[in-house]
From TrEMBL:
Descriptive protein name: CRAL-TRIO domain-containing protein
Pfam families per UniProt: CRAL_TRIO (PF00650)
BP terms from Gene Ontology: protein transport
This protein's UniProt keywords: Coiled coil, Golgi apparatus, Protein transport, Transport
Length: 438
């Protein structure tokens, strides 16, 4: 199969469709975080050390270095920023940009997925908005509780576990252990899909920001391991097939560019046969991010993931025995209370943008995030720095909108001028007709 693996090999690779269909070609972009990362990741220290150093970072230094903003937002590529700005204006002028989706990285993901073709990205983005509304995605945290989760996990072990060597969340699924019939007794396809969407939303809202803060670089994609031991045509029943394809479709249509790579491991002859069929349905770029291994996968996994972050059943050192197993623990930076408080503080401030307009003169009261217990001076200072970052982001958004309004005003002015000219020409013509009549 095609492989885009290996450091420094990501330049625009053009791959041809090898599915036997036609000459599908698409360029493979480098990982989404590439040009956003900090120039120096300060080696491989432990996450808890990094968090401590982050929390005790002097406010003035944070302000000057802008490192907090770079961590959360990434250093932007100027060409990308321009295209995103143009895309944003186009959607805004047409009234197609809800404020909650007016986010730089969301827009960039859709543009990248469509090779920066504005019209194609717009179609995809509108399709995404329609789906969000129809599926009530924003209401899921309130309306949907996956109460059967623990039972489902027992027969379908899956979940997030730790981070890869670059700090991305690692998602593991032991799909070969699933008994589709038992699964359908515990839940329904509809509920399982809702659960999947809820997890995707949590990854965007909590896991990526937490991983970014922990690894001090912008994180925006996931590394996945799919253990297909025992999977073949026989146990891939119709409902299982439907569920699998539905989830693939949701991920590629509505959460584009969030996949770093997938390791499919323990693939036997049955799976390889199945894979040939499934692969033809996959987006070429997605297919290029997937590597299929037999039982000889460990060295590839260890190249990407530290053994401490890898469960023993995959050849690593982690057992998460206190949680009843690695796939029950959901362990990772998104579980660290300090990071969750910081993320909560940011999201709370985002709902309070109107207080930020005056930058330096925000009252101390409005700076203290409600519900968040500020335990010491350092945390308070960090939250001050976060305030500032949030204000800057809000101001950037406002500036973008103002620019778009300015452009619209110019267009209206030009139309008015043109109308005025037409009016004058018509008046002249009328006068001319009058003269002719006389
Ligand atoms: Zn573990």
């Amino acid at each position: 199969m095609n492989s885009a693996k290996g450091k420094g090999k990501y330049k625009d690779i053009v791959i041809g469709g090898d599915s036997g269909s036609s000459s599908r070609t698409k360029s493979i972009h480098p990982p989404i975080e590439t040009h956003w990362s900090l120039p120096n990741c300060e080696g491989k220290r432990t996450s808890s050390f990094l968090i401590k150093s982050l929390l005790s970072y002097p406010l003035m230094k944070l302000r000057r270095s802008k490192s907090m903003q770079v961590i959360l937002e990434g250093a932007r590529d100027s060409r990308d920023a321009q295209v995103v700005e143009d895309f944003r204006k186009m959607l805004f002028i047409e009234g197609l940009l809800p404020p909650q989706q007016n986010d730089y990285h969301t827009l960039l993901r859709f543009l990248r997925m469509r090779d920066f073709n504005m019209a194609a990205a717009k179609d995809m983005f509108l399709n995404y908005l329609k789906w969000r509304e129809e599926s009530r995605v924003d209401m899921l945290p309130k309306e949907f509780k996956f109460t059967e989760y623990t039972e489902v996990k027992k027969i379908y072990p899956h979940g997030f576990h730790g981070v890869d060597r670059d700090g991305r969340p690692v998602y593991i699924e032991r799909i070969g252990m699933v008994d589709p019939n038992k699964l359908m007794q515990l839940t329904t396809i509809e509920r399982f899909i809702k659960h999947h969407v809820s997890e995707q939303e949590k990854t965007l809202r909590v896991r990526y920001p937490a991983c970014s803060l922990a690894s001090k670089r912008h994180i925006a994609s996931t590394t996945s391991i799919l253990d297909v031991n025992g999977v073949g045509m026989s146990n891939f029943s119709k409902p299982a097939r439907y569920l699998f394809m539905e989830i693939l479709k949701i991920d590629s249509d509505y959460y584009p560019e969030t996949l770093n790579q997938i390791f499919i491991i323990n693939a036997g002859s049955g799976f390889r046969l199945l894979w040939k069929a499934v692969k033809t349905f996959l987006d070429v770029r997605t297919a290029a991010k997937i590597q299929v291994f037999g039982s000889n996968y460990l060295s590839a996994l260890l190249e990407a993931i530290d053994p401490g972050n890898l469960p023993t059943f995959l050849g690593g050192n982690c057992t998460c025995s206190e949680h009843g197993g690695c796939l029950m623990s959901d362990q990772g930076p998104w579980k660290y209370p300090e990071l969750l408080e910081m993320i909560q503080a940011i999201s709370m401030r985002e709902g309070n943008d109107d207080k930020c307009e005056n930058g330096d003169t925000v009252s101390e009261d409005s700076l203290t995030p409600k519900k968040v217990d500020i335990q010491n001076k350092n945390e308070f200072l960090t939250s001050l720095a976060l305030e500032e970052t949030t204000c800057m982001l809000a101001l950037q958004k406002i500036n973008g909108l103002e620019a778009a309004i300015g452009d619209t005003k110019n267009i209206i002015k030009k139309l008015e001028d043109a109308l005025q000219n037409t009016k004058m020409a018509l008046e002249e013509l009328a006068q001319h007709i009058e003269e002719l009549k006389m």
